[in-house]
């Protein structure tokens, strides 16, 4: 029966080409091989997000009057509603973590170099989109924390010279974060970002398939016969699946033992609560902004902070075009030092954000 | 093609009554060394009753990144929980990242009623 089905499909879609491609596809297996799997982990978590997100849509109501209540309904009345929401929140966080690990491993393995510049660029765009998912989704429960996080986050956009204020109003749907903001964030979170993300992700994956995975550093001088590769199918795929299973178990444990809290409903006329913090992946920016004085040389401190982040982001995006020399050159060392500084800055500020 | 989409996304202005004065409560509602957030049209304000019984009112929107501030009796200051910004009881930014003072409002007592008025 399987043969008949395969023949039926093959006669129409020439699946032999795909099977041939999979048979021939090999993955380099050298120094740093473990880090190759985090892109797949991020992809797996994205699928979990899509499924759990669709399930949440069945009950969620995107208006200031009913958003909080609908989430409470999901968590308290709908069978396993608490689990679906918890999985969605935890998987989102794990996905950001996986993307960060994937990106920094690509950076330290220098896998972004020619001819993979566009793979890197599309990857950085995917990271920004993932953070956009986190930011837009955070407001949807319409609770106290999400309200102030959105207020601060959108105000940061408003600080950008010339276009900032217009972008902020466009995003908020009003001059302030109000009930008009919620449907916008909902639309961005469930329609706009998924569309853009799917397109960029497809492009990213096509680049990887066309160019193959980057070989480890130092392989340029290794003779072909001494390079170790493993078949993509089934060896690499099975390892991928095993790691996905482990991640799925971690996710299940987190979602069950630490169900995501709902907090207090947003009150547009109450003070920001003490100890307020954004999600961990925005914490480094949040914490850094605390240390910048109100004015630095006649420039608003917040503007200076935002400009520093924009410059850092631009440096990160353009790394493949800056790092074009071989290992060991002054430029290569400088780029590595810059990236290490960015990583340390993110880690230190995040830790300070949790403990201070 | 982009123009109608962008214009569609820009929210139309919502007409709003120009409120310049508001009754916040009665004198007896406020204990000394406490502060409350009140609604001044669409903007939050903060009314503080000082130790000597005098009232002070300001815009409650932090001049740093727009969080809503609160009165901290232990510091005798106005404090923003978001980035640890601090203002003294004249509204002046004295610590942390806020770049400007809070906008101050006038407080008038009419009998037992506390009225807050925006300055011209």
Question: Keywords, please?
Answer:
heterodimer; A: 356 residues; two-stranded antiparallel sheet; B: 120 residues; mainly beta; flat
Q: Would you spell out the secondary-structure blueprint of this structure?
A:
The complex is a heterodimer of chains A (356) and B (120).
Chain A: H1 2-13, H2 15-24, E1 26-28, H3 38-57, H4 67-76, H5 81-108, H6 117-139, H7 144-159, H8 164-172, H9 181-211, E2 229-231, H10 232-257, H11 280-291, E3 295-296, E4 299-300, H12 301-317, H13 319-322, H14 330-355
Antiparallel strand pairs in A: 1-2, 3-4
Helix pairs in contact in A: 3-5, 3-10, 4-5, 5-6, 5-10, 6-7, 6-9, 7-8, 11-14
Chain B: H1 2-9, E1 21-26, E2 34-40, E3 43-49, E4 55-59, E5 70-72, E6 77-80, E7 85-87, E8 93-95, E9 104-110, E10 113-117
Antiparallel strand pairs in B: 1-10, 2-3, 3-4, 4-9, 5-6, 6-7, 7-8, 9-10
